[in-house]
Amino acid sequence: MSSQATVTSRTARFRTESSSLAPGSARAMLFTILGELVWPSAAPVRTATLVHILTGLGFESQTARQAIARASASGWIQSERHGREVSWSLTPKIMDIFVTGSARVYSMGQTFDDWDGRWLAVMPTIPHARRAARRPLYAGLTWAGFGDPAPGLWLTPHVERADEIRELIDELDLVEHTVSIVGTVESIGMAPTEIVARGWDLDALAEHYAGVAERIEAQQPATPDEALLAQVRMLNEWQEFPRTDPQLPEALLPDWIGRRVARRIEELRGSWNAFAKQRYAELNAG
């Protein structure tokens, strides 16, 4: 398998796993904990540590343990028993997902100011016999930053994600029913500003980002425990951004609030990270 195909496969797995996570749920928070605390430590995590953090986030102990059991059933973690205590190691599957998923999440604050004006257009026609493919197709296109300004037409300025969409179309067996084109928008029909207005509900997304900004600024951790919990809450918000934000270039969407909120999260993460990691290490040492 080529390097590009491997990265694309990881992207598909991250998209699939993250789309099954209800924002703010115990399972979504556990996903954040595994990616932010366990993965960088390169060491197993005790059940007691995971339960402590999840209950600190407001979940019942039973709910926390159910989330851990579901993570094991999903192939995210595998158990190791030491006497009466159980620890968990990350599986290669979840580590592969974190490699690509973290890159997409970290890119949310970057300024997209080198766009060359080209769009990737995808025009799928879903026959009745393949109607079950509709939902995963739309979810995959949205994850890749596509909008639908007109019926049957999906567009994104991220032409570099063509391989990701090629794999999606292959997975859903829609090759025979899809046409794709890369090119610029001419003076016929909708202008780029109209494409943006019709393709994405940016007003609702901006309102969501404003709420996220308010929530993260309200957190004022004063202890290592509070820093740990605040960081997990904040990064759980952050990992949702790629599911809804198309990351449009500055030429189409200047001074976008999404980029500003993502950069603020990175700044706060830098301030809290040392305290959060130290507290996590203390908890996991028992």
Provide key terms for this protein:
Arc Repressor Mutant, subunit A; 12 helices; globular; 286 residues; three-stranded antiparallel β-sheet; disordered N terminus; 2 domains; alpha+beta; four-stranded antiparallel β-sheet; 7 strands; Alpha-Beta Plaits
Q: Say how many strands there are.
A: 7
- Helix percentage: 55-70%
Overall 3D shape: globular
Helix/sheet category: alpha+beta
Give the terminus-to-terminus CA distance. 42 Å
Q: Please work out how many helical segments DSSP would assign.
A: 12
Strand order of the largest sheet: 5-6-4-7
Helix and strand pattern: HHEHHEEHEHEEHEHHHHH
CATH topology of the largest domain: Arc Repressor Mutant, subunit A
Under CATH at level 1, the class of the largest domain stands as Mainly Alpha
Description:
It is a single chain. The chain has 286 residues and is an alpha+beta fold. The protein has two domains: 1-112 and 201-286, Arc Repressor Mutant, subunit A; 119-184, 2-Layer Sandwich (Alpha-Beta Plaits), CATH 3.30.70. The chain is 57% helix and 12% strand. The chain contains twelve helices and seven strands. It has helices spanning 3-19, 26-41, 47-56, 61-73, 92-106, 134-143, 162-171, 192-199, 202-218, 224-238, 241-244, 257-285; strands at 45-46, 77-82, 85-90, 119-124, 147-150, 153-156, 178-183. The strands form two sheets. The protein has a four-stranded antiparallel beta sheet with strand order 5-6-4-7. It has a three-stranded antiparallel beta sheet with strand order 1-3-2. Helix 1 packs across helix 7. It is globular. Residues 1-5 have low confidence and may be disordered.
